[in-house]
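Record passed on underneath.
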Amino acid sequence: MPADFVSATPVRRAVEVEVVSLKDHALTARRDRVAVEQALEIRVAGADPVITMRTPGNDLELAAGLLLSEGLVRNPADFHTLTQLVDQPDIVQVVLSGEGGEQGRVLQRSSLSNSACGVCGKSKLNLESMSGLPRLSEGEPVSAELLAALPARLREHQAVFDRTGGLHAAALFTLDGTLLALREDVGRHNAMDKLNGWALFEGKLPLTDRIVVLSGRASFELIQKCVMSRAAVVCAISAPSSYAVDLAEQTGITLVGFLREGRFNIYSHPERILSAVA
């Protein structure tokens, strides 16, 4: 994280609540942990504020990843200011670099102000941000055996999920299976934005030689975010949607679904995996 980008700490990702549990035909009162969900307001100069419900933590990465998905930033230098005030931890303030007039026009063309819940509520899908990107090349082959081992590695590092059972995760692995980063959130799209924001700040973009693993299903908005970070291999523990498959096929992404305990389906560009089969 650049030194001039300010973040508020600490954060609470889980809290205890009173519950009544039914087990073996008996009711028992006990305490349980649930994932924290709070509103985050992202104020970008020149645009209406964005409100998203998220699990607190890595909020600057979330804002940066969202702006990357909208095609408004490509690297840390595109931010003039990215600040989370200590006394207002649920507000992120953003000023983009460059000329104010052009910044305003870009913001107006984007669907940023309606991005809070993936694509729900958007007036358009903002396909323009992807239109200038070249199709991903075939790249390095990926071992099927390695892919089959990734769900277990993902679960090993889902710390907040282990305590609450209520979070989605997005993780980034190398082609040899090394975990580089994992982000959790109540929202699937937020987890991916946080992961992309991490990659942006750490100088890891593009993700053409990396594997993205999603803890849930693969929907259009998640694949769109992977397109913007140039992820070549995307694996989902659950099912993909038809639009996700179409977008992955068009952009050159190898999309894997139902990645569970030694089995999976390849929905697009199987050549990256098949070429690794002896």
Observations:
- The CA atoms of residues 37 and 55 lie 5 Å apart.
- The chain has two domains: 38-131, 144-274.
